[in-house]
Amino acid sequence: MKKLKTDLGEKEIYVSVSQCNRCGYCEQVCPTYVLTGKEAYSGRGRNQIVRLMLEGKLADPKAAEDALSTCLLCGACSSACYAHVATADHVLEGRRQLRKPNRIVDFLLAELAFQPRRFRLLLKAANFFRRLGLAKLAAQSGVLRLMGLTVLATAETHVDGAPAFFLEESLAADPELAWPRPGTVNWFYFASCGPNFLLTEVGQATVRNLKRLHGPGAFLRNGCCGLLQYNYGNLEMAQELACRTIVRAEEAPGGPIVGDCSSCVAHLKSFPQMFIDDPVWKPRAEAFAARVRDAIEMYGASGVLRPASGVSASEGTTYHDSCRARNGQGITKQPREAMTAVSGACFSELPEAEWCCGGAGAFSFVHPELSDEVARRKVANIASTQASVVATSSSSCLLQLAWALKKYYPECRVMHLSQFVDQDEKKESRI
User: Domain range holding 423?
Assistant: First the structure.
């Protein structure tokens, strides 16, 4: 990318990274720096590495690769920075310059983007083998590692669940979500890949909540938003998917576009970033971004939610801020209003709620040891509240916390905020 949209205006990449004055405020909020004490693992250190890369003065590309690949992209450094220096964007730019082709990753990203039907067949086949236990056997036996698929072996130990059907199939079959149709459409549901392909119960809960709290809506029938492609260095593919998403949304004018993975939603809101120098697509991207809402923004109105009469009525509860909700979108108030409205005095504020849990997309698979250290700190804070339920809002947070809680604090379980808000409604529907 040539330019970045920053809090200080549109800046050339080099100008943006040069705005870091190395004050060090970022260091005390950076999980990887706090845990390791390595300067290169801090926001300040990573900014200087990218600056050296842009100046052509970097002596050791391998050292840069280590420093940049271990960034969680949580954005805590930018939130702590008085100038809000866009460190995560700088890290991504550095990664793009260091990026090496990976046949498997590049193939899967291309399939997801341009061959969605074939990708879904491949994923269903993989889920079938997972349900049979064959994938777990391959991971435990070391076969995946011998094949050079260490990341897949780690992922198999972290991820539970292998749905036979995807969320989009049930939503497409729901006549109440059909569009176009006569009548009012107050909202459009955007199915992110996490809820769509893996955490289907999250999307189902979100849609039930939206129907109950905000009236009639529709399923956008969208494709992938392009976040994975963007984060893994393929800007052209990410831009193509962004254009497709924008066009699809323009065909469905009206209410807000609501997603329930905070990472994907933050990316949707940042679409204008990819079209800074494009006079045609920039205004369209800005109009689209203005319509996007995170599901957790839709639950905070006082008086809308009711106290739980279900499983959380007497359980201790707490809330973990997804990095891309808090730092990427500035959402902190609404989810706490929702938690308090539903669980009342049973809700406790989580110490270091703003700290990353170590999920960060595929980070937990690529850097399992460092991710585990970050996760243990998060679980220790959850345990200090004696909560039985912790809610959050990002797919990677849900996967990471489910794995970490099972390992270190099985007395607690994780739920998406949509599932937590939906509990009372589900109980009533069974009566």
Answer: 317-430
The alpha carbons of the chain give a radius of gyration, in whole angstroms, of 21
Whether residue 34 lies inside any domain: the answer is yes
Whether the CB-CB separation of 337 and 302 falls below 8 Å is answered with: yes
| pLDDT at residue 431 in the model | 27
pTM: 0.88
**For residues 126-144, b (16+ Cβ closer than 10 Å) or e, as one string?**
ebeebeeeebeebbeeeeb
Enter the tokens of residue 187: 């909202």
The CA dihedral of 355, 33, 5, 242, to the nearest 10 degrees, is -70
Residue 251: the pLDDT is: 93
pLDDT averaged per 10 residues in sequence order, the chain, 431 residues: 79 90 91 93 94 87 87 93 92 88 77 81 74 51 46 52 84 93 91 91 96 94 91 88 96 92 96 93 96 93 57 77 94 93 90 92 82 94 96 94 94 95 58 27
* Nearest CA among 316, 248, 327, 240 for reference residue 275: 240
Residues 154 and 175 placed together within one structural domain of the fold: no
In the chain, the number of structural domains is: 4
Inside any domain, residue 41:
yes
Buried b (16+ CB within 10 A) or exposed e, 312-325: beebbbbbbbbbbb
417: which strand partners?
A: none
Q: Give residue-wise pLDDT tens across range 258-307.
A: 999 999 999 999 999 999 989 999 999 999 999 999 999 999 754 566 66
Cα–Cα dist 339/328, whole Å: 21
- Contact between residue 70 and residue 32 where contact means Cβ atoms under 8 Å apart: yes
**Cβ atoms 221, 189 nearer than 8 A:** no
251 Cβ contact list (under 8 Å, min separation 6): none
Distance CA 409, CA 61 (A): 39
* Interatomic CA distance for residues 332 and 387, integer angstroms: 19
Domain boundary among 267, 298, 329: 298
Q: Tokens in use for 425?
A: 């409604």
